[in-house]
C-alpha cells in the first residue's frame, strides 16, 4: 500500500514526500474544515511511514528515525485534538496510543511489520473520515487565509499559482 492509495499526494512507491507534495498539503490545510484536517493528518502519517520504510530498506537509520518521529508527531496531534467529551474520543485515543507504541517498537527493532500494523488501523480511519468530511459544513478552520484560485498559470519555464485577496488583512486566524 504505497503512493496515492495511502494518501501521499504525488509520492510514488519508493519516494519521499517532495516539496510539491508538502505545498499541496499546506494548501489543503489552509482550506480544510476540521474533519478534513483529520484526514490530512492521517495522510501525512501514512506518508511518513512510507518514508520510514524506504529509509530502512536503504539502511539510512537517521532518515528512518526522523520519519518515525514525524509520524509520531502526526499521531500526537491527532491525540491532542480529540474532544474528550464525545464518546468516540476514548476509543480513538486508545487506537492512537496503540499506534504510537507500534511506531516505537518499529524504531527499536527496525522492523517494518510494526508499520503495517499501524497502517491497518489508520487506513480505515482515514477512509471513514474522508467519507464524512464533505458533511462538515463549518467551513475552513483557518479563517482569513490567502485564497488560491484553482489552477495554475504558465510562465516562461515555470508554473505559477494565482493568488487572490492579497490585501493587508491576510493573517491566519484559527
Mind explaining what this structure looks like?
- The structure is a single chain.
- This protein is about 55% helix and about 10% strand.
- With about 170 residues, it is mainly alpha-helical.
- It has a two-stranded antiparallel sheet.
- The longest helix has 24 residues, at about 35-55.
- Mean pLDDT is about 80; it is low at about 1-5, about 10-15 and about 160-174.
Quickly describe the structure.
The protein has 174 residues and is mostly helical. The protein is built from 5 helices and 2 strands; from the N terminus they run H-H-H-H-H-E-E.
Number of helices in the DSSP assignment: 5
What's the Cα radius of gyration? 18 Å
Q: Return the average pLDDT rounded to an integer.
A: 78
**How many strands?**
2
The rough form would be described as: globular
N-C termini distance = 34 Å
Strand order of the largest sheet: 1-2
| Category by helix and strand content | mainly alpha
Strand content: 5-15%
Low-confidence stretches: 1-7, 10-15, 162-174
Main pleated sheet: 2 strands, antiparallel
Helix content: 55-70%
Series of H and E elements: HHHHHEE
Amino acid at each position: 500500500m504505497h503512493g496515492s492509495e495511502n494518501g501521499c499526494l504525488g509520492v510514488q512507491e519508493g519516494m519521499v514526500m517532495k516539496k510539491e507534495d508538502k505545498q499541496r498539503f499546506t494548501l489543503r490545510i489552509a482550506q480544510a474544515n476540521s474533519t478534513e484536517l483529520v484526514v490530512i493528518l492521517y495522510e501525512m502519517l501514512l506518508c511518513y511511514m512510507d518514508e520510514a520504510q524506504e529509509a530502512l530498506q536503504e539502511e539510512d537509520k537517521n532518515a528512518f528515525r526522523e520519519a518515525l518521529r514525524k509520524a509520531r508527531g502526526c499521531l500526537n496531534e491527532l491525540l491532542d485534538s480529540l474532544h474528550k467529551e464525545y464518546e468516540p474520543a476514548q476509543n480513538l485515543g486508545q487506537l492512537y496510543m496503540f499506534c504510537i507504541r507500534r511506531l516505537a517498537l518499529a524504531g527499536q527493532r527496525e522492523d517494518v511489520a510494526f508499520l503495517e500494523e499501524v497502517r491497518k488501523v489508520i487506513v480505515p480511519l482515514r477512509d471513514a473520515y474522508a467519507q464524512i468530511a464533505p458533511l462538515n459544513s463549518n467551513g475552513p478552520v483557518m479563517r482569513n487565509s490567502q485564497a488560491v484560485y484553482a489552477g495554475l498559470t504558465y510562465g516562461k519555464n515555470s508554473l505559477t499559482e494565482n493568488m487572490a485577496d492579497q490585501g493587508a488583512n491576510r493573517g491566519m486566524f484559527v
